[in-house]
Amino acid sequence: MAQQHLESSEAYDTDAVLGAHLRGRATDFLRALRQHRESGAAGDTADAARALRRAARRISGTLHTFRPLLDAEWSDALRPELAWLSGTLAHEHAYGDRLARLAEALHRLTTSTVAPPAQRAEHGAPAAPPGRETLALGAAKAAALLDRQLTLARTRAHSTALQALGSSRFHAVADSVAVLASEVPLSGVDAPLHRFAAEAEARLAEAVTALGGRPPYSQYDSGSDTPWHHVRLLLRLHRYALEVVPGPPADAVRLSSAAHALNAHRDAAEAAAAASQAARTPRIAPPTAYALGVLHADQRHQVEAAREAFLDAWRREPVSTP
Fold first, then answer.
1. Gyration radius of the chain's alpha carbons
2. 3-state SS assignment for residue 251
3. With helix as H, strand as E and coil as C, how does 12-43 read?
4. Is CB count within 10 Å lower at the N or C end of the chain?
5. 118 or 98, which is more confident?
6. Does a structural domain hold residue 221?
């Protein structure tokens, strides 16, 4: 772990390092905002929106981890606004990715020579699969249903994002970030940066321990996703803290692999939820419901695989390069 390396950072000038980092992320935000405005006429704003989200997350994460070193009133006011902006901009992209993921999974399930994962009946007992012909028959209608639902959700999210970027609330956030790009409101507290970065690492390690190790196979237990989503958030905060106070380079690969696994976990869990929601559409044909059930089971398998991949990455010993 990075704690010993963090403690060697005590000689860092807190104002210079933390201030420089926040000014840099604020500059990234303003650059992305300018790119978004310039590309708006062409309608190709996806890259700029991603850059805005990325900068907003990093500023918010830094404000959270190093809060005692910053003006509390200012920090506590800006953090939720950055979270609102990042979340609002994320929805459109997430719906598009979810639709592509589910369409690919349906194609894979209907063309694979391997038997599809079994559904479960209403009360949790395994249901006998009707067969591949039923799956093939229902897959096309399931794909069309998902396309309608998720495209509509994506369109609404796009409209919401456009409204948000034109709102007085967003302009207030942009003004605050513009001030941050030139002046960071520090609290004057005299404390080493590594202490707060180490606390972020400790919170992450505690949350991973609370997962209880490698869980029993539980592909249908969507209620168990919440602590894994929490670990994903804490891992993000830990990695953002390491951008301020770098840890051992050899640990970066392990943390990157762990983050990739938790992102895959999030994507699969949300895709499974979308399939489940589509299956509750009134008056859908039995083959369509069956295909959606198989799709849900497949994504829950992916959830379980992502959990195992995360635990494998987390327990992996960092390898130093001579």
1. 23
2. helix
3. CCHHHHHHHHHHHHHHHHHHHHHHHHHHCCCC
4. C
5. 98
6. yes
- Kindly state the tokens that stand for 187: 């609290």
| Cα gap 175→167, rounded to integer Å | 13
| pLDDT, tens only, 153-164 | 999 999 999 999
At residue 196, what is the residue type?
A: F
Query: Is 110 within 8 Å of 234 (Cβ atoms)?
Result: no
In contact, 238 and 255? CB cutoff 8 Å: yes
Which H or E run contains 227? helix 225-244
Q: Contact 75/67 with Cβ under 8 angstroms? A: yes
Nearest-angstrom CA–CA distance, 87 and 212: 29
Specify which of 89-98, 188-197, 244-253 reaches the highest per-range mean pLDDT.
89-98
Q: How many CB atoms lie within 10 A of CB 117?
A: 18
DSSP 53-65: HHHHHHHHHHHHH
Q: Domain range for residue 218?
A: 1-113+132-315
Number of domains in the chain: 1
